[in-house]
Amino acid sequence: MTNSASKAVAYGTIGGIIGGIIFGIMMHMQGMIVMLAGTMGSESAVMGWMIHMIISVIFGISFGVLTFVIRNIWALAIVFGIGIWIVGPLVIMPMMMGMGTNLAN
Questions:
Q1: Which residues span the membrane (predicted)?
Q2: pLDDT tens, 28-51?
């Protein structure tokens, strides 16, 4: 891995952790962390936090790597943000909970 690629992964990891903690606090206050744990058959807030932080780090690393593809950071942020919003809470999470997608709502 080149030096710039390893920096992108490192910065993405750090960004994912920071963003995950901030967004996780908001999710926790709304009871969504326990709902996330439910996707794995658990009712534990700790399990929900672990799932959430793993996903956050994956998203952070993905964002860091995509900076090589989309050089305009603002365009990347908008496209990436909309993309993870559609894929995560509107498609994957409801389907894992047996509810179908939320795309039509």
A1: 9-29, 49-69, 76-97
A2: 999 889 988 988 889 999 999 999
Residue 64: partners with Cβ closer than 8 Å, 6 or more residues away: 8, 9, 10, 11, 12, 13, 15
Pick the closest to residue 90 from 102, 82, 105 (CA basis).
Answer: 102
Cβ neighbour number for residue 12 with a 10 Å cutoff: 21
What is the distance between the alpha carbons of residues 21 and 7, in angstroms, rounded to a whole number?
A: 21
Q: Report pTM.
A: 0.85
- 76, 23 contact by CB (below 8 A): no
Q: Which domain holds residue 77?
A: 3-96
